[in-house]
Write a structure and sequence with these properties.
The protein is built from five helices and seven strands. About 35% of the residues lie in helices and about 20% in strands. It has one domain: P-loop containing nucleotide triphosphate hydrolases (Rossmann fold). A seven-stranded mixed β-sheet has the order 1-3-4-2-5-6-7, with helices on both faces. The chain is globular, with a radius of gyration of 16 Å. By secondary structure, the protein is an alpha/beta fold. Bound molecules: guanosine-5'-diphosphate. The site of guanosine-5'-diphosphate (GDP) has 16 residues, from helix 1. It holds the Pfam family MMR_HSR1. Belongs to the TRAFAC class TrmE-Era-EngA-EngB-Septin-like GTPase superfamily. EngB GTPase family.
Length: about 200
């Protein structure tokens, strides 16, 4: 199913969002966390999420449609140091309205670098999810960068930290480079899409 994802459209404003059809799972993360690589890995396509990537400037929400009519949604990466404040505020407002109001949104995947999980804006995403009780799945990506013991510790600490939030949250380690964790991610998405 995910292998057959294809680009549907990009949105820059509320008015350009596609109609609410089927269910959606959104992908968020700091820039450079490996969000595009994770989406490409899940969908077994080399350039699915890269085609429309425009770092730091145009802030787009990209929609990828699946054969069953559900969608994967690539939210703009956050944490670019160079983005002007005005753009950051606009991005924040647009994403917040999407996160709060999108009725088809069934789950949120947050991609983090396993070496630096749960940073600044990751918490904003979690708070938005919490406010509407949207289930969250955290991907600790780049697990190939750590030794097994360190990896286990980061996984455990992140699970513990997520208990501060009153929402259903799951966490897994992942490596888009080594293609590790793809089945676990697919299963989580299957569960949300089946709900
Ligand atoms: P995005 O900005 O979040 O979309 O991140 P990208 O997918 O463009 O990846 C950012 C950088 O991290 C690139 O240089 C990737 O090659 C690298 N990267 C992504 N995933 C992994 C991973 O699992 N392991 C390692 N070692 N590098 C990764």
């Amino acid at each position: 199913n995910y292998r057959n994802a294809r680009f549907l459209s990009s949105a820059t404003t509320k008015n350009t969002l596609p109609p609410e059809q089927g269910l959606e799972v959104a992908f968020a993360g700091r820039s450079n966390s490996g969000k595009s690589s994770t989406l490409n890995c899940l969908c077994e396509q080399k350039a699915l999420a890269r085609v429309s990537k425009t770092p730091g400037r145009t802030q787009l929400i990209n929609f990828f449609i699946l054969p069953d009519g559900n969608s994967l949604v690539d939210l703009p990466g956050y944490g670019y140091a160079k983005v002007p404040e005005k753009i950051k505020v606009e991005w924040q407002k647009f994403i917040e309205s999407y996160m709060m109001e999108r009725s088809t949104l069934a789950g949120l995947v947050i991609i983090m670098d396993i070496r630096r999980p749960l940073r600044d804006h990751d918490h904003v995403m979690l708070e938005w999810a919490e406010s509407r009780q949207l289930p969250v799945h955290v991907i600790l990506n780049k697990s190939d960068k750590l030794k097994r013991g360190e990896m286990t510790k980061q996984l455990r600490d992140t699970k513990e930290a997520l208990k501060d939030y009153d929402l259903p949250a799951t966490v897994q380690t992942f490596s888009s480079l080594k293609k590790l964790g793809v089945n676990e991610l697919s299963r989580q998405l299957d569960t949300w899409f089946a709900s």
